[in-house]
Write a structure and sequence with these properties.
binds S-adenosylmethionine; 26% helix; alpha/beta; 7-stranded parallel beta sheet; Rossmann fold; 4-stranded mixed beta sheet
């Protein structure tokens, strides 16, 4: 296996990656070691996910998909924030996600696209730790640190096994993880707000708690919609 980025302190993760067959390529974007992440429910968050999801990752995944067979599988596809950009430029994308709320938002967005774009995105409700697909892909990608949702080593292995079974020989697995900030406090919170475009705004408060022993981070999202007075 060829690895094109540095994975500091990831001894556990490196051994997990042996699950991938030789010839498959691992590509990581802007990543170092991170804490594992536990987000239980994307129900309410799904509605405003894209509003707050201004990440600069689309060009990275788009370029990879265009270079590598124009056919890709996204794990944890969510609202199809990335997938829709790929299908717009001619890539066929299969996306699996475990939140029906997020998939519903993705489907609503897809309905607003041209028929030729719509038919290139196939969305499925499935778990990235246990999915089985007959299709094989030259590229499997996992944006937005979604691999962190596999919070136990067992889950990570299960997910990598599914990837192994679904990635073509010499295929590419690409994903991103955030920077490890060991000095970060065990608990923190932050708040941001966004205009919704219909004379309202959404205030999002996030509480983050990390359990030092397991390094698992639990995030609680609180969203408040404020309708502005005319
Ligand atoms: C941070 S969001 C990323 C969404 C999208 N990939 C993006 O980049 O905008 C993580 C997504 O992964 C999904 N997810 C979490 N655990 C999953 C699992 N075990 N199997 C499939 N999807 C999962 C969640 O439902 C959520 O939609």
């Amino acid at each position: 296996m060829q690895c094109v980025t540095i994975l500091p302190n990831l001894s556990n993760f490196a051994s997990l990656l042996n699950t991938l067959i030789s010839g498959q390529l691992l590509l990581c974007f802007n990543q170092t070691l991170s804490a594992r992440r536990l987000i239980v429910n994307y129900g309410l968050a799904s509605k405003y996910y894209d509003l707050f999801g201004s990440k600069n990752d689309v060009a990275f995944y788009k370029e990879l998909a265009l270079k590598h067979g124009k056919k890709a599988l996204e794990l944890g596809v969510g609202t199809a924030r990335v997938a829709i950009e790929l299908v717009r430029v001619g890539v066929t994308v299969w996306g699996i996600g475990n939140s029906k709320y997020m998939l519903n938002v993705a489907k609503e967005k897809l309905e607003r696209e041209k028929a030729s774009v719509r038919k290139r995105l196939i969305l499925k409700l499935a778990d990235m730790r246990s999915f089985r697909l007959k299709e094989k892909f030259p590229l499997i990608y996992i944006p937005s640190a979604t691999f962190e949702h596999c919070i136990s080593e067992k889950d990570q292995k299960k997910c990598l096994n599914c990837i192994h079974n679904t990635l073509k020989s010499k295929g590419i697995l690409a994903f991103d993880l955030p920077k490890l900030e060991p000095e970060k406090p065990e608990s923190s919170w932050w708040i941001d707000r966004k205009e919704t475009g219909d004379s309202g705004e959404v205030v999002r408060t996030i509480f983050s708690r990390r359990t030092p022993k397991t390094n698992i981070v639990s995030l609680n999202f609180f969203l408040t919609f404020i309708k502005k007075a005319n």
